[in-house]
Structures are given as structure tokens and as C-alpha cells.
Amino acid sequence: MQEAQLAPVKPWRDRSNTIGYITGGMAAQVDLLRQVLAQLPAETKSMLTWQAQDGKTVSVQCGDLCMAQLSSAGLVERSGTTWIPSGYAQEWLENEDDAFLATKLHENVKFFGELLAAIGEDVKHSDLLETAQSAYGLGWSSVDQVRRRTGWLRSLGLIELWGQRVVRTVEGDNILGKLDICDPEDASGVMDHTQISSEGIQLDLGDFTQLEQVDLRNRRALIGYIPRGNASSGRGPGETSLTPTASIRLLVEMLGDGLSVEAFREQCSEELGISRTSFTTMMHALRHTGLIEQTAFNFFAPTDIGHQIKQPDSEHLLIAYLHSRYLFFGEILNQLDKPSTVSALTAVAKEHYGFAQASNGEIRIRLSFLQDAGLVERVDWQRFRVTSQGRAFGQALELQSPMDNPSADSVEGEPERDVDAVHSSIVDDLQLYGRDGSESKAFEAAVGRAFAFLGFHSDHLGGPGRTDVLGAAQLSAQDRYRFIVDAKSSGNGIVAESSVKFDALRDHKRKHKADYVIVVGPDFAPRLKNWAVENEVILLCIDDLVTILDRHSGNPLPLTDLREIFARVDTFKDDLLEQYGALERRTALMHRIISLSFQEATDEDPIAEGYISIENIIYALRREFTPRPSAEEVGEVLAFLSNPVVAALDATKGRYKLLDSPRNISMRLRGLGGTIKTD
């Protein structure tokens, strides 16, 4: 082999978990790849043919092979409906240097050169799998991905099989000394803090770093709904959603120097695809950030800090400001010395920082802001860690002191912790396995658990002629319904057009007597979205399913309401999020009404005697909710809280008085929920 010109390897987190396989012989992958690439460019639906190691002819549709097997390692690229060799693949075809190909595969694929380095005396495939799992944190359940890698390395002449032993060749020894091998500590996320400095952190954060512990403990709990622009008609099919920071900036910029509510709503609908109900939920959250304010009747404008965060390079200022407003924000930076999952951070927030309302969704939005500012980075699909800038930034903030013995008010019931743990486990598995083309069964199981979390009876079936997941709403005869779910994982994050077989879905729907059909995947090829509507199939992206699970965990939507939404294929996600928005508004109303009742009860007013009228409640809430809560909305919440089973309020002649402490009310509601048996 010629001496390879080595390029810097990608960060571990950016390399692919999977490497593809070309049918025709495990140890003939390089020769088979050369035959395939020689036929490109080619249209997605054209057929590619090549000679297998045993002399037989293999024929596969171009799109299926390129999408499922070659794209994860960056060997091919798509241009419209045409597949072409990637830049480095084309260079390899021209230079015919297999050492060059080996270094590029190492650059793009996890545990490729690392596998080569892990080969010692008497090493078998099972030993290499153990190294991948324990040292590099790869969640492989079988040796398939190890065998694929050894197949490529054999075809490159870098290793040999001696019976069951895996042995490096002389060429393998030579190239190993030239590869930039990732340390297990870097892959697993362990950080050497002796190398961390404050370089790059130059801040003038003003009063946002001068906070007392009492101020930190009294920060707001919930950030709420930040739109991401997924539903906007102005965004192309290949465009990703906005980050939270970009979304906040865009919203404030759209306000300019001030707009009426109606004009702002129209702009949000056009720019971000926000529906009327979602706009109301978004306005509630945005107003509480303090970045906008009401300056006249139905007229809003950015505040001073709102104007400041519109400027370039203001991400650190925004983080410091949000830290001053919301519980467990900057404190996250001190919890990520070692990589941690969202669920672990949620538990810490509840147990040590008095953040009783902490949820995975709330922690996830905080992490997204911190990622946007470069203070936190993702290690893998489950874990996050602090960056060097983040560590220095955390030292510049005044952080809330953790409570070694949390007060009773911050202690959560075990059933709720169980729900959080289940929810987090499902989300982690969806994100991990949905983007790993070699773990389709694990992804199917995660999808089944997701629909069970939503309240359905869910069976993971799979196998030839069977749907992946069969879901059912176990209700009365006139209300019950069934649906099938096809789970499509993808190593490159896009489900190809050829991967969704609408004829097969119709057969499965008929066979299982289902009412609705859902396909879940990381994302979908543009034309699939139109075809799905024509075939009455719901396409559900993993990120959207995660959002639904987050919102469902705090405000579950009834199965009868979900049926109405399943029937609207073209607007499924928007309608679903609107319904969750309405439930979240009701929950926010309940929280504020209890708070107002508590304030009234503790106010030494001999005339009112702790009572407050519905008119005064609406008046007090008029500036906190957009649109203002109606008498009917407030009345429904008051009727619920006055029910003897809840026993939160006493109702006397249209006036209401607190009957118990907010903590006892919370415990009573939680206790009532715990008496209901769940599967």
C-alpha cells in the first residue's frame, strides 16, 4: 500500500455508529464497493449489479443500497434523485490507495481504527464486542457491527482470521501507527479538567451574576413552550428546526419596536407555522421570559434585555439572563463534570434544588439553550457534558447551593419518579436506536413502549407479514380503535422513499383490522410526506414523538381526543400540539389560582376573610395569560378545586377560599392518581 495522507479524525460524537454491508462476501467489501461506485451517478430507482465473491450476480435498487448501507460511512451522497460517490470515495477510485480508504473509514465511523488497536493476543469477536461496549460505550447487543468492521478490515488487508482469532497483519500494524485513535475516556465522555481554562469567556453580565440565594430559590420553575418552526410553510423539507436560541431571537426580532397581538400572531403563523392555540401557549411562555412586555392594550414590544439578545454573539448574555429567571439553569453546568442523562439531571433538580416541577422536557430545553451557547455538548444520544467554556462560565455565575437535606416541599412521590424514569428511558432509546440502522428490533420495541406511555395497549409484533407495533385504545365498544405502527430506523437520519411500502401498510392495516396507520422514523424523504397524505398514513418524526411524550408526561391527553387527531393525517402534529397547549394552559391556570388563593388566605384582611371572587381572580390573571382567561375557563378550574374529593377550595356564594396548604393539595392529587392501577 502507498503511504496514506491522513486527515484529522472527526470528533467521536460526529462519527457514525454503523458501517454498511454490501451483499457478496464479508471479506470482499472493498472489491464490491469499487464495483458499486463505478456505476454512480445513478438514479434512486435504478438497479445496480455486481459480481459477488462466489461469482453470482447481485442486483439491488440504488436508493436502497446507498441509503441503508453506504451513506452512514460517508461513501455516497445524494443530489436530488441521483446518488453520487462522495468526495473521498471518488478520490479513492482515482488513487486506488486502500490505505487512504481505511483512514477515511476511520475518520467517519466509530470503533474502526479503535477496533484495529484493540486487537491483542488471542482476541475473538466477542472480546472486541466487550471492548466496544465497556470501553467505548457503544450499545450494541450483538457482534454484527463488529463483524462488519472486521470484514472491511480484512478486505483492506489489515487483519486476518485465524480460526476464531482476529489477528493484525503487518499492513495493519503499519497503518495503526498513523491513525488518530480515540481514547476510551474521550468516547465515554470523561473529561480531563486539568486542561480546562476560561479561554473564550469574556463577559459583561452586569447584575445577572449578583444574585442572593433567596433570589435563586425563588426563580420561576417552567420555561414552557418555545416554538421551533417545524410546521412553517416557509421552511424547506430538508431544513432542520430552529434551535431555542434562534427561535427566541426570531420572535423578538419579529416584534420590532412593537406590534399588536393580531399582527404578531399572523407573523408567527407565517414564519413559524404556529397555530392560534399554540400562539397563546407561546405568548404565555414568552411574556414570562421578560424579553417582551405589554406596552398598551393588546400591544407588545421587546424589553431592553430583549433588544440586547438580538445582537450577534449575545448567547452568553442570554444564558446569564435566563439563569437569573429560571430554576436549575446555570446549575446544570456543575452537574456535568461527568456525562449525564436528562433523567439523571431531572432527579438532581428535584432532590437537591427544590425544583418540584422539573420534567425531562424542561431540562431538555435548558440543555438546548446551553448547547447553543457552546457551554454544553452532547456525548451521545443519551448523555451531555460541560465544555471548557461551560465550566469557566459556571464559575462566573452565582449558583444556587444544593440542599443536602431537601425540605419536605421539594420531595416528590415515588410514582412520579417512576413515570419520569420510564419516560426518560423511552426517549433515550428512541433517539439512540432510531438513528442506528443495525438496531431495528430495539427501535421497534422503543416505539411500542412510547405508545404504551401515551395510554394505549401496545404489542410489539414484528417479523414477516406482521406490523411492527399494534396499538389499541381499550375503551367502550363505540370509542375503541386500533392502529398499526411501522418503525423505520436509519443510520443517516433520513428514511428513504423506497423504505416505506404503502401497499404493505394497507395489507397490515387490513390484516390487523386497524383504523389508522403510523410510520415512525428519524426524518423522511420529502416526497414521502406527500405520498403519506395520499395514502392516509401519519409520518411521525422521532423528535416530534419525543416532544409529544414530554408534553404528555405532564398533561396527558385522553385517548378519545387522540382518536379525533389520528383521523386528520395532514394536520396530525399541529392538532395534537394544540390540544396539549390547551391542557397546559388549564394546568397553568390551576397553579395560579391556588397561588392567588394562598396569598388571599395569608393576607390579614378581616373583611374578606380569605375569600376571593371569580371576578377578582380573572382581573388578577388578565396580564398573565394571552388571551385573557374567560369566566368559563376559570369556572371549570374552580369547580374542580372545590370538589370535596380534591378539597382545595371552599365555595360560598360565588367566592372561594383556600382549605388546605398547596403541598397537601399536591399530595392529595398525587395520591388519588396513585390509587389507579396501571399496566
Quick structural gist:
With 679 residues, the protein is α+β, with helices and mostly antiparallel strands. It folds into four domains: 12-188, no CATH class; 206-414, no CATH class; 416-549, Restriction Endonuclease, CATH 3.40.91.30; 581-674, Arc Repressor Mutant, subunit A. Strand 17, helix 22 and strand 18 form a beta-alpha-beta unit.
What does this structure look like?
The termini are far apart. Helices cover 46% and strands 12% of the residues. It folds into 4 domains: 12-188, no CATH class; 206-414, no CATH class; 416-549, Restriction Endonuclease, CATH 3.40.91.30; 581-674, Arc Repressor Mutant, subunit A (Orthogonal Bundle). It is α+β, with helices and mostly antiparallel strands and 679 residues long. Strand 17 (516-521), helix 22 and strand 18 (538-541) form a beta-alpha-beta unit. Helix 19 (414-433) runs antiparallel to helix 23, helix 23 (542-554) runs parallel beside helix 25 (572-602) and helix 24 runs antiparallel to helix 25 (572-602).
